[in-house]
Structure formats: structure tokens, C-alpha cells
Amino acid sequence: MRRIVIVGSGGAGKSTLALELGEALGLPVFHLDALFLQPGWVELPREERLRTLEQLVQSSSWIIDGNWGGTGLEVRLAAADTVVLLDLPRTLCLWRAVRR
Question: Which residues contact 36 (CB under 8 A, 6 or more apart)?
């Protein structure tokens, strides 16, 4: 596993899993929220997000977590060798998101 995509509902634990896997496997971790949100919760324009993502997936190894709509999921999936889907109950995800 050298190129890992982690997807799932908000509150499912994507970022936590990404950090733990990154540490265990020695891979760089990229959170889409951190890449695509500017201060004040301002989103980067879609074209810039896609450009950033296309450059990122060219690297030989990475873990990318996040669920941004319109951010080239197909780009991430095509470049990945491993996909992790966190499919947890909605009530648990909601509770975790509210707890944050």
C-alpha cells in the first residue's frame, strides 16, 4: 500500500485513520479539508482544487482523506492502489461530528 484513499461520512474517523496509517506505514498524509479550505472556511476555486489534486496524486506515495464533492474522486481512485471506505452508522458519525 503506497497510495491510499480514505472516504466516508463526516465523523467516521477518516482523518484519525489517515494519521495512524501514515505513521505506521511511513507515508505522507494529506487532508482535503486542509488543502482546500482557506482561513474563514473559504473554499479554493474548483479548478485550483483539481489542479492541486492532480499534482498530488503524481507522487509515489500518499494517503488522502476527505469527501469533497467535485474534487476529482475519479482522479484519486484511478491513482490509488488501496481504497478504504469507512461505512459507519449515521448516528455514530453524527455524534462524533457534534462532539468535535
Answer: 43, 44, 49, 52, 66, 68, 71
Please state, in angstroms and rounded to a whole number, the distance separating the CA atoms of residues 16 and 39. Answer: 22
Query: 3-class DSSP state for residue 68?
Result: coil
Q: What pLDDT digit, counting tens, does each position of 2-26 carry?
A: 999 999 888 888 999 999 999 999 9
Coil, strand, or helix at residue 38? strand
32 burial level (CB within 10 Å; 0-12, 13-18, 19+): buried
> Mind listing the domains of the chain with CATH numbers?
3-99 (3.40.50.300)
pTM of the full structure: 0.86
* Spacing of C-alpha 19 from chain mean position: 11
